[in-house]
Automatic annotation (TrEMBL):
It is found in: Membrane. It comes from Zea mays. This is Core-2/I-branching beta-16-N-acetylglucosaminyltransferase family protein. The chain crosses the membrane at residues 28-47. It is a single-pass type II membrane protein. The keyword Metal-binding does not apply. The keyword rRNA-binding does not apply. Its main location: membrane. GO terms for molecular function: glycosyltransferase activity. It comes from the Eukaryota. Residues 1-22 are annotated as: Disordered.
């Protein structure tokens, strides 16, 4: 070796080095480099970094959507994960009982009385046997203005905004509604929600599809991924974390899936809370993240409940009586693209067409938030804005 190097440097002083000299040195470098790569790869295989799953070493297409169910080459799955994956996979592939009399369950999550009972009554009139109503009143016993709502309260508990108690109330509504085997679609509504189409339109829209309308998107900003906590590892990685409005309309299969889930629910119960440094709101992240992980193709990724965030404030726009016009309601029913904006400095806007069974259709069946004072205007306009 020494001799070769010596000769080489001597050659350099006398004449330009022949081309093949550089080439002769290369194999040594390649061998050393390859050995280092091999050692590194073996190290990564034998001693995996604790919190990183196999997915970091594969193309993402291999890993989604069932990356957690890949053979545990690098990370050994926890007991809870094995239980969860087997239950979820079976629920997703199991044939569901077909109901002869399919109904929509309208599930109202409200502090107390429902100001729009009269409007819902108008909407539901003549459709007995095709719907059912459930009310979770968390603060006070509702006073009813429509007989259709009398006695429809379920046992309720206090709901604290942003806390897991909100998700618990949703699960309580689902459990009660699932008891009726005829309920096939489950719609979560608030006291400020109103229908923006006829009953038949909404019934056919929901019953004609097997996807759930769960809002879900990747927001890399502080109100999205910024709320993720490393404590959700190893089962929930940061890149799995999603955001979406809580107002869902879901299939019976997905309603069962939510009640069957313990693993992901507990992660959000323990590590997603409103706090000074990381203001995590469980009802905005649990279901979008969960469904994005276990059945991404089974959700539409948008909510059928309209809300106007265009004012860019902490709360969405609320409609006063004077705002409620034929034009406003027609505007809401004609939207057929889902609008999103990220919460980071880039404020990236995306518009996704609302695709229903392969065709672009209006996105919204319900809308919020309406002040109680707008009831009369809504009643007056209902038959005109819901007609085609
Ligand atoms: C959905 O689309 C398929 C294929 O275009 C069609 O066969 C089916 O009838 C549609 N379903 C409804 C409910 O329209
Ligand atoms: C929905 O139903 C169609 C046919 O009826 C089926 O091909 C598709 O896989 C189903 N999708 C889901 C998410 O269940
Ligand atoms: C919803 O988004 C997920 C993830 O981006 C995607 O895989 C899925 O196909 C989307 N669902 C529909 C119905 O397009
Ligand atoms: C309805 O939509 C049009 C077009 O986007 C807009 O100019 C108008 O201000 C909207 N009207 C209401 C009442 O929101």
């Amino acid at each position: 070796m020494k001799q070769v190097w010596g000769r080489s440097s001597k050659d350099m002083t006398t004449m330009p080095p022949p081309r093949h000299r550089g080439a002769a040195k290369k194999p040594m470098w390649i061998i050393v480099l390859l050995s280092l790569i091999c050692v590194a790869l073996m190290g990564a295989y034998v001693y995996p970094p604790r919190h990183y799953s196999a997915c970091y070493f594969f193309a993402s297409s291999v890993c989604t959507p069932f990356k957690d169910w890949l053979p545990a080459v690098v990370r050994e799955r926890t007991d809870e994960e094995i239980v969860s994956s087997v239950v979820i996979r079976n629920l997703l592939s199991m044939p569901m009982a077909v109901s002869k009399n399919p109904k929509i369950a309208f599930m109202f999550l409200t502090p107390g009385s429902l100001p729009f009972e009269k409007l819902w009554e108008e909407f539901l009139q003549g459709h007995d046997g095709r719907y059912s109503i459930y009310i979770h009143a968390s603060r006070e016993i509702p006073v009813h203005s429509s007989s259709l709502f009398v006695g429809r309260e379920i046992r309720s508990e206090k709901v604290v905004w942003g806390r897991i108690s909100m998700v618990d109330a949703e699960k309580r509504l689902l459990a009660n509604a699932l008891e009726d085997v005829d309920n096939q679609f489950f719609v979560l509504l608030s006291d400020s929600c109103v229908p923006v189409h006829t009953f038949d339109y909404i019934y056919n829209y929901l019953m004609g599809t097997n996807v759930s309308f769960i809002d879900c998107f990747l927001d890399p900003g502080p109100h999205g991924t910024g709320r993720y906590s490393m404590e959700m590892l190893p089962e929930i990685e940061q890149r799995d974390f999603r955001k979406g409005a809580q107002w869902f309309a879901i299939t019976r299969r997905h309603a069962l899936l939510i009640l069957a889930d313990n693993l992901y629910y507990n992660k959000f119960k323990l590590y997603c809370k409103p706090a000074e440094e990381r203001n995590c709101i469980a009802d905005e992240h649990y279901l979008p993240t969960f469904f994005n992980m276990v059945d991404p193709g089974g959700i539409a990724n948008w909510s059928v409940t309209h809300v106007d965030w265009s004012e860019g404030k902490w709360h969405p726009r609320s409609y006063r009586a004077a705002d409620v016009t034929y034009e406003l309601l027609k505007n809401i029913t004609s939207v057929n693209e889902n609008f999103r904006i990220t919460s980071d400095d880039k404020k990236v806007v995306t518009r996704i067409p609302c695709m229903w069974n392969g065709t672009k259709r209006p996105c919204y069946l319900f809308a919020r938030k309406f002040y109680p004072e707008s009831l009369n205007n809504l009643l007056k306009l209902f038959s005109s804005y819901t007609s085609a």
